[in-house]
Amino acid sequence: MIPVYEPWVGEEEAEAVKQAIVAGEFSGLFGKSLPAFEEQFSARVGCRYGIAVTSGTTALHLAVAALDLPPGGEVLLSASTNIATALAVVHNGLVPVPIDSEPVSWNLDPNLIEHLITPRTRAIIPVHLFGHPARMDRIMAIAEKHNLKVIEDCAESHGATWHDKTTGSWGDMGCFSFLANKIITTGEGGMVVTNDDALAEEMRLLRNMAFKQPRFEHDRVGFNFRMTGYQAAFGLVQLSRFDEVLRRKRQVSDWYKEYLKGIPGITLPADCEEGRHVYWVYGVLVDPRVDRTSIMEALARAGVGTRTFFCPMNLQPCFQQIVECTSVSCPVAEDLWRRGFYLPSGPNLTEQQIEEIADLLGKAVQLAAKA
Q1: Average pLDDT of the residues in 249-258
Q2: Are the C-beta atoms of 100 and 333 separated by less than 8 Å?
Q3: What's the CATH number for 11-238?
Q4: Which among 56, 170, 178, 157 has a CA at the least distance from the CA of 124?
């Protein structure tokens, strides 16, 4: 089976974790690995501070919480995204309002933002979908005009850039995931990066249950979102592979582009002329007249893993009671949900494997078209 994603992990990570455990770096409270990982990763993004947490989801939750927005405030976010983006909004007592996608980049469409701003709007969370950077210059200009905070969801865009500036360094905060299927991983884990002194201090406080002195008196409602020291040690090794992983991801996308270009009924992902697309996963769209499910099932029978695109936020069953979320029209995101799926995208894939996947996909599309 060729899985949808398999991280590049070796003996170096195992040894680093072993050494961290020997040094007593069990929790996120002691040791040198955690501060080193925070410093080195945030520096790669181009930010002064990094706050390591338990997941990309908790990174988003912590970032939203640090803004201390009034209950019931609205947060604009990409319609096409993992539900974690909206969960961070809802769990902080706020209202998610989806922004439909651009048909080419599949990211949120900046042209739609101002139409959705109301007196209750407080922030925007753009998602850099599948590694393609969103149009951050336009998003930031709109946010500044309307005095809105910006939290970038960079779970899928480690190393991506827009106008030569790294994703995560444009907004007030940037949130990354280090899940096993991300460009670099700590197994589970995440990080918020920022250049704002006050936000960094607030997030460090809230991450650790808002402990102050005296120790067991808490004047704030915090969280236990601490990353462990041995996860951070794992992450430091992954950081040493970062540039090579990005190179391999580009090579994988180039191979796919070469071997898939002649298949009718398949739309390939757009590259990014104004930045760097890091191709976290390689997603394709099938012709509306072709049954996507039959294609994915045929690939599964042949030993090729696939996965659909994300259900847009306005269609999520758990948000149907939120009128501000469900009443927004998101036809492009809904079309992506119906027609999109992604192919195996790990950095260890070979050209031979990708040629084989492309051949199997072409045959599956032909059969689906005849059905």
Answers
A1: 98
A2: yes
A3: 3.40.640.10
A4: 170
